[in-house]
Every structure is written in structure tokens, then in C-alpha cells.
User: What shape does this take?
Amino acid sequence: MSLTDATTEGKAPGFVPMRGAVDRFWSRVDRSAGLDGCWPWTACRHPSGYGHTTKSLGGGYAHRAAYQIATGQDPRGMVVRHTCDNPPCCNPAHLRIGTVADNARDREERGRHPHSGMRRGSSHPRTKLTEEKVRASRERRAAGESIASLAACFGVSHHTMSVALRGMTWKHVDDAPQPAGVGGRASATGRRGRGGRS
Assistant: This one.
């Protein structure tokens, strides 16, 4: 049975039965990558990258709706996990039902960010920096280049560059030596200076 031919047969409570709603749902999914590729949600997304459906489609996460439409099973009380680690993906072939513990284990095994559930570093789909760029920027900062100059060079905001230099982000990247008082690590008390922009 094709995904757009999903019916209410064997449905659980909460399943969206209307054919028109199902068709509208898939019209918002880019399936051009084929059966094995990721199918990103093209409509509204959360800041975390997950697709969000309208009220007529349940008003929840798009990948959960995709799983429900494809299987006829209501995933309430469970986690719908991405085997592809791509939050907007709605390809049912990439979705697995599981528990919160299963999802946490996936996160640790795949090295995703511990708080957002997203991939870290250059594997993050929206990052402008890479591990190599962070190392280079820290070396250049240690040599005296300003944060504003580095931010412009690497195409990021002053804040993004500043927190990367201080190790508040990109913590997995080895630090380059930095002179005292130049965006360095916090002291043992966790306090940092609050000087003006460089």
C-alpha cells in the first residue's frame, strides 16, 4: 500500500483518517531524494529543525505524523526516532518507534548534542563553522586578531565567534593557546571579564 493510500484500517485513537488531510501532509514533504533518501518537511519548522504540522494534521511533530500515517499506529507515549539523525526528515523508512531511553542511547552513540538532540560540530546541518575553522580562528585570536575581524572572515556574528573562541561552544575542538585576557577559558570561579568588543 502506498503512503498516500493509507486508510483507517487498524488505526489507533488519534489517527488522522481523512484522505484529503493525508494528501495535504505529503504535499508538504519533499520526496525528491527517492525511497532511500531523506524527505524533509518543507512547511513550518521548530528552531530545533523538526517539522510542525497544522491543527488539521494534528498540530504536532511532522515526523510523528508521518510514522502514524504510514503505519496506522498512534505513537503517543513513545518516541519516534530518526535513524538518519535529520530532524525534518519524514521518510517512514528512516523512522523507528522507541522509548526515551532508546533515544538517549542513540544520542550518545551518534555523538549528538546532549541538550538539543542535534548533531554537533560540522555535522550540524545549519553550522557555518567547522572544526578546522574554529582551530584557525583560535590560533589567529591568540596571535592578536580581533573578534570582529574573525567573525567577518568566517561569516558569523560577533557573538557566535566570541563563544566559539571561549570554548562555550565547539567544546570538542582542541583549544589553541590563547594569551591571558583574550577570550580565554573561565577561571576556577567560573567568572569571565566583561570587557567591550574587540
